[in-house]
Design a protein that fits this description.
This protein is 43% helix and 20% strand. The protein has 4 helices and 5 strands; from the N terminus they run βαββαβαβα. The protein has a 5-stranded parallel beta sheet with strand order 2-1-3-4-5, with helices on both faces.
């Protein structure tokens, strides 16, 4: 990675949602990388559309990419789903339909946590 440039991988979302997330990330100074599983990213945004997405969060956060914070993008505000995403290993969650300022804050929080040790995940 070059200098202070940050990179994010957006996965599990359709075209319009990917475009929205790409725009918000761009406003935060984060470039989106594409591909099935890019190696050199600072952040992962993963759309949680069901149990397979929660399993993917768990796999990424525990085995494949434990050092990379995950923002779980939820289809709607649901406390139980948010708790499940956090328990699976997401650092923060964002529910579609809430103000984009909340997403920007979640992105900033997740990027700040990249430099800090991750939370205990031996649940």
């Amino acid at each position: 990675m070059q200098g202070d440039q940050r990179f994010a991988w957006v996965c599990g979302s359709d075209g319009p949602l990917s475009a929205l997330l790409t725009d918000v990330l761009g406003e935060a100074g984060v470039s989106v990388v594409t591909g099935a599983s890019p190696e050199d990213v600072d952040l992962i945004l993963l759309h949680v559309s069901g149990p397979p997405a929660l399993e993917r969060i768990e796999r990424l956060s525990h085995r494949e990419r434990p050092q990379i914070p995950i923002v779980a993008v939820l289809p709607f505000a649901d406390e139980e789903l948010a708790r499940s995403a956090l328990n699976a290993g997401a650092r923060v969650t964002y529910a579609l339909g809430t103000p984009l300022s909340v997403l920007k804050t979640a992105i900033a929080h997740a990027l700040a946590s990249r430099a800090a040790p991750g939370p205990e995940r031996d649940r």
